[in-house]
Design brief:
It comes from Arcicella aquatica. This is Lipoprotein. Keywords: Signal. This protein has 262 residues and is of the alpha/beta class. It contains six helices and six strands; from the N terminus they run H-E-H-E-E-H-H-E-H-E-H-E.
């Protein structure tokens, strides 16, 4: 009997120690898919001009559609970042939905329908406000010297961090995706672009191996890329090997879903 009691106490103590142990860096809980964080990265480097009609129309359409699709419940949010030399510190907006619909048990069908209609109007107003804010940032001009460089890789820890907080993250890159940074372990695709898919894949593998340890959650991200090029753009302008690089980099980092080009 004493042995059984000792064993029982040992199991309880072990359970308490396990529960109180330090949490892992990696986000290990199921993501609350009822809350979506839409992260919009707008290229403000010198190579992208959002005032051009084609670019403005394409990006405005994408912004309107993603807000309509992703802002649905209280807590859904939009984060806007500028891509340039200092992307990691370039958050320019965080917009959180506040509209809430609570239909109490026993509410009549008529009242429930009225509450749904009121909620639809409120969330619609919030979406309209969000669209105006994001499009204002889309069209703003970057007059600082930060426009001379493009740090797209700096967006990856930002995405990872939001996933770690429990959001379902959709990341939208409104960019030509031409990484342009100097220094050790950095890529400058303006000076030295990948010449073919083989070099793009090799560089992606190298960079993923270096980045993987600091991006424990990014595999759960959904990635969308919208380049500013017209369908008739030349391969020299819209280098397909750069698309291969990013597709392979996200794949090597464990992102299971397709990286969609919009």
């Amino acid at each position: 009997m004493r042995k059984k009691i000792k064993y029982f106490l040992f199991v309880i103590a072990s359970s308490i120690l396990f529960c109180c142990s330090s949490p892992a860096t990696k986000y290990e809980n199921a993501v609350d898919e009822s809350k979506t964080c839409s992260m919009i990265f707008i290229d403000k480097s010198v190579s992208v001009n959002p005032s051009k009609q084609f670019i403005y129309e394409k990006y405005t359409k994408i912004i309107n559609e993603l807000i309509d699709e992703n802002i649905n419940v209280k807590g859904d949010k939009i984060e806007v970042f500028f891509i340039h030399e200092n992307t990691a510190k370039a958050k320019v907006a965080e917009l959180v939905a506040r509209s809430e619909m609570e239909i109490a048990e026993g509410t009549s069908a008529t009242d429930a329908e009225a509450q749904k209609t009121a909620f639809a109007m409120e969330i619609g107003k919030e979406r309209s406000i969000f669209k105006k804010v994001v499009i204002t940032h889309l069209t703003s001009q970057n007059t600082s010297t930060s426009k001379n460089n493009t740090d797209i890789q700096a967006a990856l820890p930002l995405i990872d961090h939001e996933i770690g907080k429990g959001f379902k993250v959709k990341a939208y890159f409104l960019s030509d995706m031409v990484e342009s940074m100097s220094g050790t372990n950095r890529r400058d695709f303006h000076k030295t672009p990948p010449v073919d898919d083989a070099s793009a894949v090799g560089w992606a593998r190298e960079d993923a191996a270096r980045l993987q340890s600091v991006l424990p959650n990014i595999s759960m991200a959904q990635i969308f890329i919208a380049k500013p090029f017209e369908p008739t753009a030349s391969r020299k302008l819209n280098n397909p090997a750069i698309s291969t690089y990013w597709q392979r980099l996200f794949s090597e980092l464990g992102v299971s879903g397709e990286v969609k080009e919009l």
